[in-house]
Design goal:
Layout lengths: L1 H14 L2 H5 L11 H21 L1 H6 L3 H31 L11 H13 L1 H21 L5 H26 L4 H7 L3 H26 L4 H35 L1
Helix pairs in contact: 1-5, 3-6, 3-8, 5-6, 5-10, 5-11, 6-10, 7-8, 7-10, 8-10, 9-10
Keywords: Membrane, Transmembrane, Transmembrane helix
Protein name: Phosphatidylglycerophosphatase
Length: 252
């Protein structure tokens, strides 16, 4: 089995962009703040794509329906990134054993940020509502804010909430993140770093939403059930589409 895996690694190392994936498009080789840039980039790109695909009005002003769609998309993306991450880091370490998560490898941070959005949408929405109400009161009673600026600020809130909470964890590096980073350096340990980042960020988001933003356990559970159901249904639709497409190609 080890021989087969070694041969597979050699073959994949020739064609699989392990360095690009592990460093998250080269961000891991920036001179500083690699982790913050990687979480920023993955959120920024996905938010822009969502706005272009669904429209600003749907993403920001059609919650909770839009929240279900966004969380489902992030959940699917996280699964794909986890798979690519495990393969990419494993191959990258055969090419450069010194590569580590304190510098070169940051894909786990981007994956963790995506997973945080997927698992925390009820909390993100609750904090977003609170921030939006506060901003609306300021604009209504103090400032005269144009519509385009209002849209920008709402998009900023939707972006900055998960980014901020996730990177608070990155700054603090609570146990066992720092211990794993110092003691191990392989695909599993680096993946666990990103997962623990997610766990702490999710806990912080939900605690903030429960304590300060009137989110209830019932609402959080109900929305997460809707997200899980949407992921299941959309995956079945995609599977059926791919099946029919392959079948059609074989017939032709």
């Amino acid at each position: 089995m080890e021989i087969i895996w070694a041969m597979l690694e050699k073959i994949l190392s020739k064609v699989f962009p392990a360095k690009t994936i592990s460093s998250f498009l080269g961000i891991g080789y920036l001179p500083s703040w690699q982790s913050y840039w990687s979480s920023f980039l993955i959120l920024f790109v996905n938010d822009v794509i969502l706005v272009l695909a669904y429209g600003n009005d749907f993403v920001l002003y059609r919650m909770p329906n839009s929240g279900v769609v966004v969380a489902a998309i992030f959940a699917k993306l996280a699964i794909v990134m986890l798979i690519l991450q495990l393969v990419g880091i494993s191959i990258f370490h055969t090419q450069d054993p010194a590569a580590n998560s304190s510098e070169n490898i940051v894909i786990q941070i981007a994956t963790g940020q995506v997973l945080t959005v997927a698992l925390s949408m009820p909390a993100i929405m609750s904090i977003y509502y609170t921030a939006s109400r506060l901003y609306g009161n300021v604009c209504k009673h103090i400032l005269q804010c144009p519509f385009w600026f209002n849209d920008f600020m709402h998009l900023f809130f939707f972006f900055i909430i998960p980014y901020t909470f996730f990177n608070v964890v990155e700054v603090i590096k609570p146990w066992p993140i720092s211990s794993i980073q110092l003691s191990y350096n392989n695909a599993i340990s680096i993946t666990l770093e990103g997962i623990f980042h997610t766990v702490y960020a999710v806990i912080l988001l939900y605690l903030t939403a429960f304590i300060f933003c009137d989110l209830t356990m019932h609402d959080a559970i109900a929305l997460n059930k809707s997200i899980a159901q949407y992921v299941k249904e959309s995956s079945v639709v995609l599977g059926d589409y791919l099946h029919h497409t392959v079948k059609k190609i074989n017939i032709e």
